[in-house]
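so i finally got all the pieces together for this one. its two components total, 700 residues if u count the protein bits. some of the lines might not be protein, just check the labels. i wanna see the whole assembly predicted at once instead of chain by chain like last time, that was a mess tbh
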Amino acid sequence: MVSHTWRIGLIGFGNVGQGFVRILANKGGKLRERYGFEFKIVGIADPVKGSVFDPEGLDVKKLIELIDKYGHIRDYPSGRKDIDSIFLCRSDVVDIIVEVTPTNIETGEPGLTHIREALKHGKHVVTSNKGPIAIAYPELKKLAEENGVFLRFEGVVLSGTPAINLALEALAGADIKRVQGIVNGTTNFILTKMEEGMTYEEALKEAQRLGYAEADPTADVEGWDAAIKTVIIANVLMGGSITIKDVDREGITKITLEDVRKAKEEGCRIKLIAEVVKEEGTIKASVKPRKIPLAHPLANVMGATNALTFETDHLGPVTIVGPGAGRVETGQAILTDVLAIHRYTHGGRI
Amino acid sequence: MVSHTWRIGLIGFGNVGQGFVRILANKGGKLRERYGFEFKIVGIADPVKGSVFDPEGLDVKKLIELIDKYGHIRDYPSGRKDIDSIFLCRSDVVDIIVEVTPTNIETGEPGLTHIREALKHGKHVVTSNKGPIAIAYPELKKLAEENGVFLRFEGVVLSGTPAINLALEALAGADIKRVQGIVNGTTNFILTKMEEGMTYEEALKEAQRLGYAEADPTADVEGWDAAIKTVIIANVLMGGSITIKDVDREGITKITLEDVRKAKEEGCRIKLIAEVVKEEGTIKASVKPRKIPLAHPLANVMGATNALTFETDHLGPVTIVGPGAGRVETGQAILTDVLAIHRYTHGGRI
């Protein structure tokens, strides 16, 4: 089996892109030894952090050093700086595009354009960008197939905690009838803190202080982030074709300390539960606060941790619990997908 | 991509083999449609249930009908009956050997011989047989590589609940530093019943009545079954090379109702915990009853359910919870491995 060096183009150098490059910088030798995986980052395109391109490969340790010191890579000491994301998608020296720009749940842009362009130009694509997958999965899947390349996206749900690859690969052959999950860490953190006695407002402030919640927390607390993940679960794992408008969505902003206490008295916990049910071919999707008994596998998932329970025909419920976000955690999602492409194109030895 | 019909030889037609064939009988059309997976069972070899061989393929519905009606397939209406397991391992018309004979944790036989023979003759092997994997993984892995075939064994731990494939594939790139788990359903069922107030003896009888425990329950209650799985976790997932003698093993037979009550008062539960820790390259493995706090992800795994927590460098703890045994559940493990071989040899589309 001839090994070859994967030439990676990275679009977006925010938290996820940095997390991925950080892993490569720390673990390159181990990845070569364990998986026969050789790589070069040949280009990075980010309108804020800076863009740089060098077919010979960038120095990953240098990239991390620059970002840690200056917060950008605009002064990387060599390579071309006059390139952009589309240049990378079309470049002859790129084999894999890693698309990790911010998610836009309405248009999917700019990720959608990047992914389309890369697939059309015969590049494998790995992404953690929820927008394009939620909005255009069937189209992108077809485009990947037509061009004989892979499109992989473990990071869109539960970051590096296996969810997508678990369901599509490790559970292959089983039918998933229902998925229930805690897919947003911020709201689960807030609900956990409320159980400890904080009001919603106090818990939200604490989440913001710790960097779990944005200054404008709407996307999390109103259930939008959970809803877009629900769309992905429905469309990718259960053969649905729904949009975010089809998700029966309710956030946690109306939950009071009194509600939380009352649930506790009843031996329950309030959790923001994402659910997709398939019945006679029809998909129903919702994101709602629910009172669930303590014996329920999702009841004991606390803090920023996420979890998904897959109800399957052959196994009954299978639950996975792990981190739902984070720089290195989502970097791991990118890494595992890149390694999967390597494995599938190099004989599948594990 | 040219599809082709996989010719499967099944060695062992007990619970797991029947579970697998039952799934194929029910779901053949769906598997073809969803994965482009075409198959024939060309032979079954079982010294008790009967052996039959037909290169044209056996009728899976007929096999299930016979086993349900008579408990054996010795009167299957066509094909050769004068074949045995070694014949299947060497047959030119077999592509995949499914080895599902009973586990022998001391010698690994007869599974070990079957697997060696099949790999040497260029057959892919899928097994749920713990013995050969625990005893001879490095040798068998090398043999598979030398012969350009796959050896897969999701079913050896947690039946069809993804554990092996989860760790090796979906978590690829992460280092597993520690694994803790509940890997024996019988003992977990007994401990659950004791928490409900039964004595050890009463709980064991109940487990026997429900078919969870054997008439001689030693393998389960003394921790041997958990220990052999611990060896597999250490050697396959964490690069160890230990034997069952290296596992610090203690069963649950000395646990009293008083111990269980006392733990409960302290906000804990007693669970039989399999653990493998890797520290500075050294592997330590144990199976022991432990008092764990209710907030621990394994504390709420009740009844015959199993679970594994992987402590990883990139993700922290990742826990999978699901069934640990069962006819269809282990049949699903076989199916997912066969589908993985299909996927790896047909371009990896998911």
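The longest helix of chain A spans residues 15-35.
Chain A touches chain B through 54 residues (CB under 8 Å).
anyway lmk what u think
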